[in-house]
């Protein structure tokens, strides 16, 4: 469902071209509806998708995400189980618990809410998760397979960017895409997915010297930096696709990395913040839980 | 050891700047000498580095590489064992053999010479290799860890490009690097390594529409396409670093993707073909065999 004609905040350009607002709530709703139906089918076959979320210590931002995850899991019908540990848990205790969940036939998917306390090696904890139960797609095996073409289990934010491209039928083949940010959660994995779709991909970051030259050269900009006002209108080529993963709060107002109001009239398409990629991430996490559940039970994906 | 003053084919430019010829034979010799000494030390501790190379069927190009590998392993003192299978071996037989080698405490490193016959799934065969014995760095685990910062086991060609950058003290931080080609053997993994060194990285490929625009924008060009005359002098920015992984034969002459004679006077540094990256790959494969051996025996790396 293309929103070119239905978007209230669209702009008329010189050539009567409308800017596409890449709303994430509508495709998120579609995913949630599909998953709800799928879970019904699974339950009819006596399969109860079970998702274990491990929480270590008390991180205020994590609390908000965890509440969102729990609420959505419940709505879809997923059996979500939060396993809470105190912030001073030993690394080996945490890893032992993960191994126990790996071995538990009732558990379909596992995730560890990040960040975890600094005395624990995050890498070793994530590596302990069985790749066939890895809801977040952060295990080295799944990350390696992702670069080799695997698309089932990829970080939820990256799946959400791909969902937006699909939902709004934005073809990236042969286009130049600039990714700003090189985390293993967004920047690097989204590069793998855009390459798989035949985009020419540039990855920029804090050491990049000619960011404006790059933004003006590229047809697609994906920003995951977390700095308000990073991308201004003089940095954007007319007709660009702008996808904003940044989340910044300024004077109480939530905003992305891209100056939305200024860039909107220039762009072909742009994600709002909030309401763009954000609403999709939790829905896509649940989608991966269902994919893992179906794979484990040899139920056609 | 910088060769700026010692290179016979160097050119004087208007500003008396010399082009650096990135010869691979000299750093390869250095690696081989170091490994020979390391193997002596290992043997003194009763550790015999053992490297199993699996050959399936009869591929003429593979024969040449395998001979080179065997010869160099012998020179260094590595116990290289070639395991030959007929081209019609079943996939499960091949995977069973790999599992046997994984379990064999005398085996330190394993590689499967590619390509293997088409009735066998290359991915599943490579995945069967224990990542702690993965000499080529093609297992998903090692590829995933590579994107997360692991540098011990990476594809040998990629290690060779890094060797050249190190040996000739070419700092890539903050520079723009263009990689042409997106294989999991060269293009993608070299992107991971250049990002780790804080270069801004672009990956181009057969669907890239503005190759010349990109080559002219970038400070470093790494080409792994396999097409002679792909990069001509009008595509190269003065002062570029040109690394050519291409191997093409034209009228009996071996050449890379970059027009060497034409581009040499413009570049800051350039790899010859042959004699650039090529001589390093077998040496670096052996280096990874020794790294794996030392890790397995808890012998300090």
List keywords for this structure.
homodimer, 301 residues, alpha/beta, Rossmann fold, 2 domains, 6-stranded parallel β-sheet, 3-stranded parallel β-sheet, globular
Task: Describe the fold and architecture.
The structure is a homodimer of 301-residue chains. The first copy, chain A, is α/β, with parallel strands linked by helices and 301 residues long. Chain A folds into 2 domains: 45-144, Leucine Dehydrogenase, chain A, domain 1 (Rossmann fold); 154-279, Rossmann fold. The first copy, chain A, is 39% helix and 15% strand. The first copy, chain A, has 10 helices and 11 strands. Chain A has helices at 25-44, 60-76, 91-103, 122-128, 140-147, 156-167, 187-196, 211-217, 260-263, 278-296, and strands at residues 20-21, 50-56, 79-85, 109-112, 176-180, 200-204, 220-223, 241-244, 248-250, 253-255, 269-270. In chain A, the strands form 3 sheets. Chain A has a 6-stranded parallel sheet, with helices on both faces. The first copy, chain A, has a 3-stranded parallel sheet with strand order 3-2-4, with helices on both faces. A two-stranded antiparallel ribbon of chain A has the order 9-10. In chain A, helix 2 (60-76) links the parallel strand 2 (50-56) and strand 3. In chain A, helix 1 (25-44) packs parallel to helix 10. The first copy, chain A, is globular and about 55 Å long. The model of chain A is unreliable at 1-13 (pLDDT under 50). The A-B interface holds A 123, 139-148, 173-174, 176, 182, 184, 188, 191-192, 195, 198-205, 207-210, 213-214, 217 and B 123, 139-148, 173-174, 176, 182, 184, 188, 191-192, 195, 198-205, 207-210, 213-214, 217. Strand 6 (200-204) of chain A pairs antiparallel with strand 6 (200-204) of chain B.
């Amino acid at each position: 469902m293309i929103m070119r004609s239905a978007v209230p905040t669209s702009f008329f350009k010189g050539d009567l071209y409308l800017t596409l607002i890449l709303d994430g709530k509508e495709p998120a709703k579609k995913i949630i509806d599909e998953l709800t139906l799928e879970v019904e089918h699974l339950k009819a076959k006596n399969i109860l998708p079970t998702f274990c979320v491990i929480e270590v210590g008390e991180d205020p931002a994590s609390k908000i995400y965890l509440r969102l995850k729990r609420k959505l899991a419940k709505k879809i019908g997923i059996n979500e189980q939060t396993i809470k540990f105190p912030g001073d848990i030993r690394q080996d205790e945490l890893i032992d618990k993960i191994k126990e969940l790996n071995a538990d036939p009732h558990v379909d998917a596992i995730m560890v809410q990040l960040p975890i306390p600094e005395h624990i090696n995050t890498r070793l904890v994530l590596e302990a998760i069985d790749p066939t139960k890895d809801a977040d797609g952060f295990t080295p095996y799944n990350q390696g397979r992702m670069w080799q073409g695997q698309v089932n289990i990829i970080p939820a934010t990256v799946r959400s960017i791909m969902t937006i491209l699909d939902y709004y039928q934005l073809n990236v083949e042969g286009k130049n895409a600039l990714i700003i940010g090189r985390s293993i959660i967004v920047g690097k994995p989204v590069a793998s997915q855009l390459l798989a779709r035949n985009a020419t991909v540039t990855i920029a970051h804090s050491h990049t010297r000619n960011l404006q030259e790059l933004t003006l050269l590229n047809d697609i900009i994906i920003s995951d930096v977390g700095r308000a006002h990073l991308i201004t209108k003089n940095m954007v080529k007319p007709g660009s696709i702008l996808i904003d993963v940044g989340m910044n709060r300024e004077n109480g107002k939530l905003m992305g990395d891209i100056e939305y109001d200024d860039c909107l009239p220039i762009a072909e398409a742009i994600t709002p913040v909030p309401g763009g990629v954000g609403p999709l991430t939790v829905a896509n996490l649940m989608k991966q839980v269902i994919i893992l559940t179906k794979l484990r039970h040899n139920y056609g994906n």
